């Protein structure tokens, strides 16, 4: 199906869901167990249609903009001399050769070309084109990367924050000015290591048409993306980034331990100061989304509005709504809904992604391992920018 067909099917599915809810409401009852099962299935279908449409749009945009992507690739934040070297065809070809056959049988000139990207732990920093593919895969899996602030760093990074504003006062002619200083602080971002191992059969690696770089970039991207999203939303800060949930401030305490009302969503929206609210984004778990989808405003209109164009997010009160597996459930005492300006969540990406070929570890099974890792940290630099709703 093309993008329009997928969006049409999503719209039809959402309309059927709304009719089911309206019927139960008119009859003064909750959904029956059978109806709830149908509702949940349709909820999964509409999300699937949207994801497929967004993916098709992304591919179409990449095909259209491939010239732009090639002329302005993602650059790994390492030294300037290394940065240019990672962009050369020689480095890319050398990296591909060693990933395919191993350095023990590689030509000496290949190993010489790779020295510029040698990591202290025995791996190689990936070529720029590989990093570009990896970032695209990360953004596809972890939508938060499209909303937060990402900065490349070479070491620990201190991020200055303005913790309170100064004030201006009306002053009479020739009267002394009232002094009022803004208060500043800082957040230190210390990159943590995120790593994984991918196993590939020897037969695939010996196939000349097998795209080693593309395969590794897609798989590392998916694994890193899932882990990143969970940490960005609900990370503990111990050995991993500190999540938005932990850094946010209280907006609303729900009356129910496992329920949310339309008024509480509106109160959460307005608990965020206007400068941050204007750029606000909602975050909740999928199970919580199903609760929110049933809410109506004072005009009996559903608060949740589905995005019916490819690339368009779902909306609540005119602001984007992201579903995250990392968000807490709508359960007693948990922070189930987040809302605010996610650009105040800062992610520090340390150096380029490093890949090491493991020749012997999985040899008994006819496989070659690839160990990949990257280092990063993340933290909400201004708690007032994002508020949470906590269940009773």
Order of helices and strands: HHHHHHEHEEEEHHHEHHEHEEEEEEE
Shape: globular
Percent of residues in helices comes to 25-40%
Low-pLDDT stretches? 65-81
Quaternary arrangement of the chains shown? single chain
Structural class, from secondary structure content? alpha+beta
Order of strands across the main sheet = 6-14-11-7-10-9-8
Strand tally, please? 14
Mean pLDDT, nearest integer? 82
Our estimate of the beta-strand percent is 15-25%
Helix count from the secondary structure assignment: 13
Radius of gyration: 25 Å
The N- to C-terminal Cα distance equals: 44 Å
Biggest pleated-sheet summary: 7 strands, mixed
Keywords:
13 helices; alpha+beta; 5-stranded mixed β-sheet; 392 residues; 7-stranded mixed β-sheet; globular
Q: Helix and strand layout, with pairings?
A:
Blueprint: H1 3-26, H2 33-64, H3 66-71, H4 80-85, H5 89-101, H6 108-114, E1 124-125, H7 128-141, E2 149-153, E3 157-164, E4 183-189, E5 192-201, H8 202-206, H9 212-234, H10 244-247, E6 249-253, H11 262-271, H12 274-277, E7 281-284, H13 286-292, E8 304-305, E9 314-316, E10 319-323, E11 335-340, E12 345-358, E13 367-380, E14 386-390
Parallel strand pairs: 2-12, 6-14, 7-10
Antiparallel strand pairs: 1-12, 3-4, 5-13, 7-11, 8-9, 9-10, 11-14, 12-13
């Amino acid at each position: 199906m093309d993008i329009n067909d997928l969006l049409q099917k999503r719209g039809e599915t959402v309309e059927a869901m709304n009719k089911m809810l309206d019927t139960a409401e008119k009859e003064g009852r909750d959904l029956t167990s059978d109806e709830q099962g149908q509702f949940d299935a349709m909820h999964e279908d509409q999300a699937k249609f949207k994801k497929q449409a967004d993916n098709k749009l992304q591919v179409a945009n990449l095909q259209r903009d491939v010239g732009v992507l090639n002329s302005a690739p993602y650059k790994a934040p390492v030294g300037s001399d290394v940065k240019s070297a990672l962009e050369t065809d020689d480095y890319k070809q050398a990296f591909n050769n060693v990933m395919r056959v191993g350095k023990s049988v590689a030509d000496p000139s290949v190993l010489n070309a790779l020295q510029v990207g040698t990591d202290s732990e025995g791996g190689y920093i990936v070529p720029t084109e590989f990093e570009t593919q990896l970032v695209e895969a990360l953004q596809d899996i972890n939508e938060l990367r499209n909303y937060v602030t990402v900065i490349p760093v070479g070491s620990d990074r201190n991020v200055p924050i303005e913790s309170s504003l100064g004030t201006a006062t009306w002053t009479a002619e020739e009267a002394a000015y009232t002094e009022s200083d803004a208060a500043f602080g800082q957040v230190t971002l210390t990159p943590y290591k995120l790593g994984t191992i991918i196993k590939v059969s020897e037969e695939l690696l010996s196939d000349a048409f097998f795209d080693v770089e593309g395969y590794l970039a897609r798989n590392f991207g998916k694994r890193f993306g899932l882990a990143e999203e969970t940490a960005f939303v609900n990370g503990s800060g111990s050995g991993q980034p500190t999540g938005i949930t932990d850094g946010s401030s209280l907006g609303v305490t729900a009356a129910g331990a496992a329920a949310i009302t339309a008024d509480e969503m509106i109160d959460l929206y307005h608990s965020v100061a206007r400068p941050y609210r204007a750029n606000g984004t909602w975050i909740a778990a999928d199970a919580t989304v199903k609760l929110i989808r049933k809410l109506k405003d004072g005009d009996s209109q559903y608060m949740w509005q589905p995005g019916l164009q490819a690339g368009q997010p779902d909306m609540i009160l005119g602001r984007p709504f992201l579903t995250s597996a990392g968000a807490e459930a709508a359960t007693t005492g948990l922070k189930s809904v987040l809302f605010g300006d996610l650009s105040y969540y800062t992610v520090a990406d340390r150096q380029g992604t490093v890949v090491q070929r493991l020749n012997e570890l999985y040899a008994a099974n006819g496989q070659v391992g690839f160990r990949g890792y990257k280092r990063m940290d993340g933290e909400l630099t201004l708690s007032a920018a994002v508020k949470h709703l906590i269940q009773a």
